[in-house]
Design a protein that fits this description.
The protein has about 70 residues and is mainly α. The chain is elongated. The protein is built from 4 helices and no strands. The longest helix is centred in the middle third of the chain and has 19 residues. It has one domain. Pfam families: Unstab_antitox (PF09720). This is Addiction module protein. It comes from Okeanomitos corallinicola TIOX110.
């Protein structure tokens, strides 16, 4: 496998049907994810706080289309 170049692999992958390319891309991205339990726990806590703030009316939600329009207007 060491004799196979990136360009050869990439060229071969491009001949795959789109579904298989997407599946391969997903697997490659997952292979890069190193799950850090401390980071995951911190995100879980943050998500819970954000959900609670929404449920308690502490934040004002803005529809996505409005946010995108504001960005386009910049």
């Amino acid at each position: 496998m060491a004799d196979v170049t990136y360009d050869e692999i990439f060229g071969a992958v491009l001949t795959l049907p789109p579904l298989y390319r997407a599946m391969l891309a997903e697997h490659l991205l997952k292979s890069l994810d190193e799950i850090n339990p401390e980071v995951e726990a911190a995100w879980e806590t943050e998500i819970a706080h954000r959900i609670q703030a929404i449920d308690e009316g502490q934040v004002t939600l803005i529809p996505a289309d409005e946010v995108l329009q504001r960005l386009r207007n910049r």
